[in-house]
Design brief:
Strands 1, 2, 3, 4, 5 and 6 form a six-stranded mixed sheet that branches. The protein has three domains: about 100 residues, Serine Threonine Protein Phosphatase 5, Tetratricopeptide repeat, CATH 1.25.40; about 100 residues, Serine Threonine Protein Phosphatase 5, Tetratricopeptide repeat (Alpha Horseshoe), CATH 1.25.40; about 230 residues, no CATH class. Helix content is about 50%, strand content about 20%. Helix 10 links the parallel strand 1 and strand 2. Helix 2 runs antiparallel to helix 3, helix 4 packs across helix 5 and helix 10 packs across helix 14. It is built from 14 helices and six strands. The protein is α/β, with parallel strands linked by helices.
Length: about 450
């Protein structure tokens, strides 16, 4: 029995020695392979092999140094991929890429390899995360409203993946959804980030407007975030053919329909009333006087509108005789003496009546910051609106009428647009003021978009 025990001990020692010897060899082999991969620029595979060598032999300094150097290059590349996803608008993949960076960093930290964390990407991550969660939240609520609960659960699961504070989110536990969102809104208010607060409380209200005092907070955040803008017409073109207030009205209408809830234009009547209440009469003509008036009436910005030009052009109904070709059938005797029918054409004229009315408008705007007194945005926009009506009359069969002669043995082409002239009824042109209003509406939209872009 003692002999067998001694033999077993010797055998066990031999196995342990073999494993240890083999481990040393394999560690060196992994380092050798890693060195070659690193030299070839394959930093990811090199890092993997250095990592394996270090796991086999934790005290191997060369493996640790090689891992640290190559893993840092790999981590930097992962951050670059994160930034590219953000630029491309792929928020979900960007967030996952950032998580890969964090996992990679922490895994190496756990084995004693400290990498340089690129902290300047952290704010970009937070901003991307909030934007993604906001969109997913809105999507989830819309899916719930459509009774698509399975899809909503999947959507909320994406939120949880990137923000653990939503870990209790469930379509069956909406209190858990609204509570963290509502609290986030309060944090935005405390930080005086009223735009973000408004958007957050708006999300809460879309599902449950009665949740706590959501509506009051929504109203408060909107009031604080609003940017009251006063608008005045300066140096306007005097033209008896159009109402000079119609542009102002078009502008107010565009402001009323803007998707930006924070832009509020002060109605002209209220503006005149506020200015008339002041002790000193102010005539607004430039940025300086606009800033002074704006401070008195509580406006954040002043919009100076100059209707530079309004041109009208009109062609009274004018009728002209236009050439065309009428086809007709005629029987002729051929060379073989047999009678046959052929298509011939004769030149005719038809009466074509044209009339048009056109309005061209050019408007310059200047957006003045009341606080600084500076012009922060300005541009000149133009618009051309017109109405053209053309109709034709022919005393004959229109089906046999063509605008040109045949080419070769083929019948000529009678384009649909050309044919339709003969079926047009005479009508009145659009009024000049209506065309001017259309031009003003188009320019107003351009101004609105321009201002919105600056405000954002």
């Amino acid at each position: 029995m003692a002999v067998k025990l001694n033999f077993f001990i010797k055998w066990l020692c031999l196995v342990i020695f073999s494993i240890t010897f083999s481990s040393c060899d394999s560690s060196l082999q992994y380092i050798k392979l890693a060195d070659k991969l690193a030299l070839d620029g394959n930093y990811s595979d090199a890092a993997d092999n250095y990592y394996t060598a270090l796991i086999i032999k934790p005290q191997n300094i060369k493996a640790k140094q090689g891992l640290q150097k190559n893993a840092q290059l790999v981590l930097d590349g992962k951050f670059s991929a994160f930034a590219k996803y953000v630029v491309d608008g792929n928020s979900e993949q960007a967030l996952r890429q950032y998580s890969y960076c964090k996992d990679y960093f922490n895994n190496l930290k756990n084995i004693g390899v400290d990498l340089n964390w690129l902290a300047y990407f952290d704010p970009l991550y937070e901003e991307t995360k909030q934007e993604f969660i906001s969109k997913q939240y809105e999507l989830g609520l819309s899916q719930i409203n459509e009774n698509k609960f399975d899809k909503a659960e999947f959507t909320f699961a994406k939120i949880v993946e990137f923000d653990s504070s939503y870990k209790n989110v469930s379509v069956l536990r909406m209190q858990s959804v609204l509570e963290p969102l509502y609290n986030q809104g309060l944090k935005y208010v405390e930080a005086e980030n009223y735009k973000a607060a408004y958007k957050t409380f708006k999300q809460v209200s879309t599902f449950d407007a009665t949740f706590k005092n959501t509506l009051q907070m929504l109203k408060y955040a909107l009031e604080k975030a609003s940017l009251p803008i006063a608008a005045v017409l300066v140096g306007k073109e005097q033209n008896s053919n159009y109402n000079d207030l119609s542009f102002y009205q078009a502008l107010v209408a565009k402001f009323g329909n803007t998707k930006n809830p924070f832009l509020k234009i002060i109605d002209k009547n209220n503006l005149d009333k506020l200015l008339n209440q002041q002790a000193d009469s102010i005539t607004i003509t430039d940025a300086e006087t606009a800033a002074k008036a704006g401070k008195l009436i509580g406006a954040k910005y002043f919009l100076l509108i100059n209707v530079n030009e309004v041109k009208f052009d009109e062609l009274k109904p004018t009728t002209t005789d236009e050439p065309a070709y009428q086809s007709f059938s005629e029987r002729v005797v051929g060379a073989n003496g047999e009678s046959q029918s052929v298509i011939k054409f004769k030149k005719v004229t038809y009466a074509e009546t044209k009339k048009y009315r056109k309005v061209e408008a050019k408007v310059t705007y200047q957006l003045v910051s009341v606080q600084s007194g500076q012009i922060v945005s300005s541009e000149t926009f133009s618009s051309e609106q017109y109405d053209v009506h053309v109709f034709a009359r022919y005393n004959g069969n229109i089906d046999n009428l063509y605008p040109s002669l045949p080419a070769g043995n083929f019948m000529p082409d009678a384009p649909t647009e050309w044919k339709e002239k003969f079926f047009e009824l005479n009508r009145e042109l659009i009024a000049s003021q209506t065309l001017a209003d259309q031009a003003f509406a188009e320019i107003s939209q351009k101004i609105m978009d321009d201002i919105d872009l600056y405000i954002q």
